[in-house]
Amino acid sequence: MEKRESLRGMQSASVRLRRRSRLSKSTIVIVGSGVVGMATGKGLKAKGHRVIFCDVAPDRVALLRGQGFPAIHTDELAGPEPDAYLISVPSPTVAGRVDVSFVKDAADAVGRAIACHRTWALVVVRSTVPPGTTEEVVLPTLELASGRRAGAGFGLCMNPEFLRAATAEQDFLHPRVVVIGAWDERSDHALRAIYAAWYGVPIISTSFRTAEAAKYVANLFNATKISFFNEMLRILAVAGADPAAAFAGAVQGGTGFWDQWYGTQCGAPYGGACLPKDTAAFLGFAEDLGFGDLMPILKATLRMNDEMAEAPSPVEAPAGIPQRRAV
Ligand SMILES: NC(=O)c1ccc[n+]([C@@H]2O[C@H](COP(=O)([O-])OP(=O)(O)OC[C@H]3O[C@@H](n4cnc5c(N)ncnc54)[C@H](O)[C@@H]3O)[C@@H](O)[C@H]2O)c1
């Protein structure tokens, strides 16, 4: 009986310990303290983590210090020995290609800091980068600069940010989902522990490439949606319809607007009684008005559907691209 009581005592102590460690407070360095970095750092601080901002721009460091935040220049990165480095530096598009040199430079600085660590540290890519960047650019740069191997020497995650610039701080504090692409289980657990205070927010654990892709899917859909409505705005004006009223009806009546999963379980062309006939008919209608050129998205939609009808399965990935989850 006594033994059972003491076992029960030990179990509840270990549950308490587990809970406490799940909510453990980390020291986190934000590498790149712009829109995303500031919102992230302020949000993590609000949840009880110790945050140090870091930036390559001296005026940004001065601004943050002036606001009362601990802030360091990239040259001072070797000092704090935090539990995690979150990289949120720019990834601009130059001549139609993403420039990952800022991400590589930041990874190099973080790697050199990790070389001096007495303990394991987690590195998290938060910049928007194309699939493969974390594995092919960030990981080797970190390994080279730190002299350590990913996994045993340091952890690595890709954690895209879905916030909107105008409401950055609020969006970071109230995410709808957290996506974690992780190198290994330890990295995944370490980042999940940082997000432990976000009770009830779903976390998707996946590979680097899938996490990187999730952000582009979200942004490309938003861009396409806006362009689709701009296309409809132009053609409805020509057709003598009131776009605002038509959009109000469509947004409230169309399944694709109120069912967020509609159309996302893809792999086959659209079919049924209405979509094939109405898409083709509306393009014909616009062409008869002499305004077929106003509908490039509708034309692309019809082409995409024809291609899916001919070859419904996804295109094969080139050899060498892993099709797996890392965790
Ligand atoms: N702005 C948004 O709404 C938003 C939303 C989600 C994701 N993103 C992505 O997040 C990333 C950052 O975007 P942002 O809007 O915060 O950019 P930003 O330009 O506002 O901030 C980036 C900061 O990084 C600093 N920096 C550049 N190189 C550095 C280095 N080597 N070390 C340390 N600091 C460095 C810059 O001085 C700047 O202060 C980009 O990949 C972007 O696509 C942006």
Q: What are the key terms here?
A:
single chain, about 325 residues, alpha/beta, Rossmann fold, 2 domains, 8-stranded mixed sheet, two-stranded antiparallel sheet, 12 helices, 10 strands, about 10% strand, disordered N terminus, binds nicotinamide-adenine-dinucleotide
Describe the structure.
The two termini are 42 Å apart. Residues 1-21 have low confidence and may be disordered. A hairpin with a 2-residue loop joins strand 5 (93-94) and strand 6. The longest helix has 32 residues, at 208-239. Helix 11 packs antiparallel against helix 12 (296-310). This protein is α/β, with parallel strands linked by helices and 327 residues long. It is elongated, with a radius of gyration of 25 Å. It folds into 2 domains: 15-206, Rossmann fold (3-Layer(aba) Sandwich); 216-310. The strands form 2 sheets. Strands 3-2-1-4-7-8-9-10 form an 8-stranded mixed β-sheet, with helices on both faces. The protein has a two-stranded antiparallel ribbon with strand order 5-6. The chain is built from 12 helices and 10 strands. The chain has helices at 2-22, 35-46, 58-66, 101-114, 133-146, 168-173, 185-194, 208-239, 243-253, 255-258, 275-288, 296-310; strands at 27-31, 50-55, 71-73, 84-87, 93-94, 97-98, 122-125, 155-158, 178-182, 203-206. It binds nicotinamide-adenine-dinucleotide.
Radius of gyration over alpha carbons?
A: 25 Å
CATH architecture of the largest domain: 3-Layer(aba) Sandwich
Question: What sort of overall outline do the alpha carbons produce when their principal axes are compared?
Answer: elongated
CATH top level of the largest domain?
A: Alpha Beta
Give the neighbour order of strands across the main sheet.
3-2-1-4-7-8-9-10
- Give the class from helix and strand content and strand pairing: alpha/beta
**How far is the first residue's CA from the last residue's CA?**
42 Å
Portion in beta strands:
5-15%
Count of runs of 4 or more consecutive helical residues: 12
Chain-averaged pLDDT = 91
* Biggest beta-sheet profile: 8 strands, mixed
The CATH homologous superfamily of the largest domain: NAD(P)-binding Rossmann-like Domain
* Domains (count): 2
Write the element-wise H/E pattern from the N-terminal end onward.
HEHEHEEEEHEHEHEHEHHHHH
Low-confidence parts lasting 5 or more residues at pLDDT below 50?
1-21
Helix percentage: 40-55%
Bound molecules: nicotinamide-adenine-dinucleotide
Q: Could you say what the CATH topology of the largest domain is called?
A: Rossmann fold
**Number of DSSP strands?**
10
